[in-house]
Amino acid sequence: MSRISSASHTREPEDIIAIFHCSFHPTRGNIIDWSIKASEDLNLDGVEFSTLPSGLHLVDEDVVHITQNVHHGISVFRKRSTAEAGMRGFRLESLGILVAQSSRPRPWRHLGSLKELSRQLGEHWESSKSQYAEDQRDWSLVEEWYKRRVFRRIGEEGRWVDWEEELTSDNKHHPALHLPHLLRILGPSSLTLYKHVLARRRVLIYTNPAVEPACILARIASDICGEEDRPTVLGMVGINDMDKLTEESFKGHGWIACTTDAIFLEKPSFYDLVIDMTASRPSRPAFFVSRPAPPSLRGPRHRLVPVRFTFSDVRLWSELDKALRADAEEGTFEESKTRWTDGWRLYEDVCVACAGAWMDGWKSGSTSWGIGKDGTLRVTTKGRIQLDGEDEGIRNLGKGIEGRPLTQWKRQSSVSTTNTHLLSREVRTTLALLSIFHAHSEFLSERLSELLEDATADGNSSTTVVLTPKDIMSLELGIWSELDAKFLEWLAERNKKSAGKKVIVRRGWRDLLGALLGFG
């Protein structure tokens, strides 16, 4: 990716088009107390519901990512004590901003100073409460802050350069820096999210307050799929945004959103994948896919079905896990000491090990089991996948971009790094993980384009393109996995080489047996 010279990062970004203050009123509900807009054409209606989602009264502070029409924003929530009559001892308030539309909006660049402004505002009102009534507050601090950051034009500091520049340019609040931690939390199931986002499906993250982790996960999910044609991140949505979700769904580009409204769990037709971060299961959120319900006269048309990672995810996860282990060895992360005390992680270790043995062991006939030095389960298969150890490459040469020589792999990835020894540990780890994700995305795109080009090169006038289990295996996906078959169909229909034709993956028992035995 070509680099563009960036301007100095010493001054504040000048990209804010609106700043607003919302609160909950005991009789009027969520309201906008005050706002300033760069243009009167900017509509803020409904932003009071996005910045004050249901249940936020359960926490004292939070950060909420939002979208308002085509503009991205962020808000800081605080629960303040008050003696005002009818307020039940506290006020629920949110101070938020919207930034100018661009190819890559970055509202989190203002998060640190926005938090400080919110704190100063509360202290100022508290110290001057004898002079200002609740409905006559002094907004001069906010006005001065806004004037220094109001949108003038998208300058050099607002343009995309590359990931190294993005994560090191005075940007400690960048959501992508949380990628290593979220991968440890989600485990191999994170690849289920990756597949849905890469195929531009509709993803909903259901959470309890605080909502900031869910908002960060939504941003990261968009980042891991690559640089081009990224899905829309809607941020926090509620029951009043159902029309908005329907409109975004009709665009066919996919979206990622967060919500605290449990009613969405009863409406699976609105999304393709839901991540339940409120699940009581230790350490791991629950993943559910939306499936059409059996035909009936009554009842919902869709139902939620639990989903986990597939055997085909083992290769990619082992590469990610290597980067995470390297980070743990360099830093202070001590996951290995608790691995065997976490039942769910033990289950995943066994599943990953069994999957690796099943996928590769039956071909090579040489598989060894053991316990690594850190107490984790270890499987080594001669000439193939190794879940622990010092080998430089997971895949054989020619079995995917990640298996090619290291220099060639770096050229293929959209993540370029220079002087990595000068980067912080968290930045190095994040860049390594993004590089793995982006290289795999490019491998899938390139290989699928080759398959579709071959399938449509014979001049067949049919409106349908049929892919076989052999094609599935060439993309390092699982022939037995229904999710992998659907993923391939979704991905193929978005590929330009499909020429608008419907793509079907044929998985009859004859096809599966033939692929397994190496026929046709």
From TrEMBL:
Any Gene Ontology CC annotation: lipid droplet
Superkingdom per UniProt: Eukaryota
UniProt name for this protein: Protein LCHN
InterPro entries (alphabetical): LCHN/Anr2, Lipid_Metab_Assoc_Protein
